[in-house]
Design goal:
- Strand 3 and strand 4 form a beta hairpin.
- The strands form 4 sheets. Strands 1, 2, 3, 4, 9, 10, 11, 12 and 13 form a 9-stranded antiparallel beta sheet that branches. Strands 14, 15, 16, 19 and 20 form a 5-stranded antiparallel beta sheet that branches.
- The protein has 6 helices and 22 strands.
- With 353 residues, it is an alpha+beta fold.
Length: 353
C-alpha cells in the first residue's frame, strides 16, 4: 500500500518533512544571528543599541548568542535526516569558532576622531587582534589599541613610533630616532610633527617595556607627546582590518593599507563673513599621489551646502578650489574626493578648524 493510500503514514511523512525543513530554517537563522552578532558587535552597540546602557547591551548580545547556539544544538540533536544533521552540525561548529574568535581573539572597535586619517577615518569600524599582539612583539608602524597613562578607562588608537631603549626627539617638524630622521611614508605629504611636553628637540630615552605612540594627523592627535610613554601592559590589540563601511573594507599590515594609498589635504582655509552676513569659505585642496579624479566637492555639515571643485585658476598642479557661501559662521566644512577607481577620500584636516 503506498503512502497516498495510507493517509496516516502520508501525514506522518509530510509532518516529518516540514519539521526537518523547520529545523533547517531555524539552524540557518540562528547561525546567521550568532555570526553577525559576533562580527558586527560594535556596529550593533553603536546603532541599534546606542540608547541602551552599556551593561544592558552586553546582556542582550550574550542572550542572542546563547539562544542562537542553543537552537543550533536542538536542531542538531533532534533532526532525523542525515543531511540536515550534518548541515546543522557544520553551522554549529562554524558559529562556535566565530564566537571564540570574536570574543577571545578578535575585537571590533568603532573609531572616534580623525587622528589616524586618512588610513582610518572617523566613525569607521576596525578589528583588533589580541593574539597577534600577545604572541608577537609590536613593530614600529603598527597601529594599536591601548589605554593612555592619564586615561586608563578609555581605549585609544595610535601608531607605534618609538621602541624600548631608543632615543627619540622631534626637530624641525620631523621625528628622530637615535639621532636619525624617521621615514614615515604613511603620513600625508606636507605633514609636520610638533613637539610636546614629553617629547621635545632633546633626545629622550624610551624606558624598557614602554613605547611612543603618535597619530598620523599630527596636528590633531593627542598622543605620547602630551601624556608620555605607553607601557607594554597598556597595549591591548594590534589593528589589522577595516570592516565598515564596505567601500573602505581592507587589511592593514604594519599600519599600511593593502590598497593604494591616496590622500588629499586642505590648505589652511578659514571661514569669513560674506556680503550676506553668512559664512563664506574657500575650499582649497592639494591632492597627493597619482589620483585619477572622478569628482571632488566641499560640503557644509549643517546646511549641507555643496559645490564641486574646479582646477586651480593659476594652473598649479594637483590644486582644486571653489568658494562655498551661505553657511553658518560656526559651520564645519569638509572636502571629499572621488577617484575613477571607486575610492572616496576625505581631505583632512577639516577646513574650519
Amino acid at each position: 500500500m503506498t503512502s497516498l493510500q495510507n493517509p496516516t503514514r502520508f501525514m506522518s511523512l509530510l509532518r516529518r518533512k516540514w519539521v526537518n525543513l523547520l529545523f533547517l530554517f531555524i539552524s540557518t537563522i540562528c547561525f546567521s544571528i550568532v555570526v553577525l552578532v559576533a562580527f558586527f558587535d560594535a556596529i550593533i552597540r553603536y546603532s541599534i543599541l546606542s540608547k541602551i546602557p552599556l551593561e544592558t547591551q552586553r546582556d542582550l548580545i550574550i542572550i542572542l548568542i546563547f539562544f542562537g547556539i542553543l537552537s543550533l544544538l536542538i536542531c542538531f540533536a533532534f533532526t532525523k535526516i542525515k543531511a540536515l544533521k550534518i548541515a546543522s552540525g557544520i553551522f554549529l561548529v562554524v558559529a562556535l569558532i566565530n564566537i571564540f574568535l570574536f570574543l577571545f581573539i578578535i575585537k571590533p572597535h568603532r573609531i572616534s576622531g580623525s587622528s589616524m586619517a586618512p588610513i582610518i577615518l572617523d566613525q569607521e569600524y576596525v578589528l583588533g587582534n589580541w593574539a597577534l599582539y600577545n604572541f608577537s612583539p609590536v613593530k614600529r608602524g603598527d597601529i594599536v589599541i591601548f589605554s593612555a597613562p592619564d586615561f586608563p578607562d578609555e581605549d585609544r588608537i595610535s601608531r607605534i613610533i618609538g621602541l624600548p631603549g631608543e632615543y627619540i626627539s622631534i626637530r624641525q617638524g620631523k621625528v628622530y630616532i637615535n639621532g636619525n630622521p624617521l621615514s614615515e611614508p604613511y603620513l600625508t605629504s606636507g605633514t609636520t610633527t610638533g613637539s610636546g611636553r614629553f617629547i621635545t628637540d632633546k633626545d629622550v630615552l624610551i624606558p624598557n617595556l614602554h613605547y611612543v605612540v603618535l597619530g598620523d594627523q599630527r596636528q590633531h592627535s593627542f598622543d605620547s607627546r602630551f601624556y608620555g610613554f605607553v607601557g607594554a601592559g597598556s597595549i591591548k590589540e594590534t589593528v589589522f582590518y577595516i570592516y565598515w563601511p564596505l567601500n573602505r573594507m581592507r587589511s592593514i599590515v604594519s599600519g599600511v593599507t593593502s590598497l593604494p594609498f591616496y590622500s588629499c589635504r586642505t590648505l589652511n582655509t578659514k571661514m569669513i563673513v560674506g556680503p550676506d552676513g553668512k559664512g563664506e569659505i574657500g575650499c582649497d585642496i592639494e591632492v597627493d599621489g597619482q589620483i585619477d579624479l572622478s569628482q571632488s566637492y566641499c560640503e557644509g555639515q549643517k546646511t549641507h551646502t555643496k559645490k564641486a571643485l574646479i582646477p586651480d585658476s593659476y594652473e598649479r598642479p594637483n590644486r582644486y578650489f571653489e568658494t562655498l557661501t551661505g553657511l553658518y559662521l560656526d559651520e564645519e566644512v569638509k572636502v571629499f574626493v572621488y577617484t575613477n577607481t571607486g575610492f572616496k577620500i576625505e581631505c583632512l584636516p577639516s577646513l574650519n578648524k
